[in-house]
Amino acid sequence: MQSGNELPNDRRAEYFGQCAVMMLNALRQENDADPFSEVTSVDLSAETEPGHEGIYDQALSNALAAIVAAEWPGEEANDKGRVHFARTLLKVIAEKITPDPTTGLCVIPDRDADVRSPWEKQNRAPEGFWDTRIDVDLLTDALDVSGQARHGSGTGRLQRRHVQALLALDHHPTLRTLLEAQSDRDDERAQDEDARSADQARALLELIGDEEAKRRAESAENPNEYHPKHNPDGHDFEECPVCGYETFCIQGLDMSGRVGFGQCIVCSYRRSPRVADQEGFGEHLAWLMGKD
């Protein structure tokens, strides 16, 4: 039987990243003005929705267990091998590190500063950027707040400062999974949206019928048609992967210049830049393998 402290640190880091991204996405504000906008701003001034307290606690518990296990092996668990609760792990950190007198933060210096690549050293981040700053008091307050909701004694609405303190833990070298987790989640989200767009396009085709679809295709005009003088960045129509008509209006290309993103004039299927990048990368790999 696996004891409580046998979960590898890389798995703890993985769980932290997945949960932290969920907290971050809960506070993201979508930009609906541009249908192809990939970058969303992050509004951490708002409170989280009910139900995120458990996710927050899971992210915090895994992050703290990973950090304590990496810095002070064995201190993350009790005599019976059970990993301490987050509140106890915060006490361990507070006992091991004297808080900065100015900020009140417990700071773990970046131990990888001397082993970075030449490129990283030439383009180095500001001094102390990768130090891990742990706000023990604020994270303890977050546990108090989230506990109210989880135990039925209050609303327990986590705030911006709580989420920021959680995300700051990702600077520790045993974690640093947030960017990868965010990228994976954005990829999944883009694929889900692409599948939903294709389903909606097929439903539209069924609604309007073959004759109307054909009529639309025959009368379609390309709003982004290439012209060497008036629209040198334009593109010719391409075949739509849903309706099959050559009426897919390309608004731009993926990073390798192989797959276009845009929208079909006939069925309204929409391919996002992120999906175009994914498909373009796949085609590029296939091309490289074909060269061997």
Would you mind describing this structure in some detail?
By secondary structure, this protein is mainly alpha-helical. The protein has 2 domains: 168 residues, no CATH class; 100 residues, no CATH class. 47% of the residues lie in helices and 8% in strands. The chain has 8 helices and 7 strands. The strands form 3 sheets. The chain has a 3-stranded antiparallel sheet with strand order 5-6-7. A two-stranded antiparallel ribbon has the order 1-2. Helix 1 crosses helix 7 and helix 2 runs antiparallel to helix 5. The chain starts with 8 loop residues before the first helix and ends with a helix.
Q: Output the strand order for the largest sheet.
A: 5-6-7
Tally of DSSP helical segments: 8
Strand content: 5-15%
Radius of gyration: 25 Å
Number of domains: 2
What is the helical fraction, as a range of percent? 40-55%
Distance between the termini: 48 Å
Q: What is the chains' assembly state?
A: single chain
Q: What's the number of extended β-strand segments?
A: 7
Unreliable stretches, pLDDT < 50, 5 or more residues?
29-45
The biggest beta sheet, please? Answer: 3 strands, antiparallel
**Residue-averaged pLDDT:** 84
Structural class determined from secondary elements: mainly alpha
Estimate the global geometry from the Cα principal axes: elongated
Instruction: Note the run of SSEs as H and E.
Output: HEEHHEHEHHHEEEH
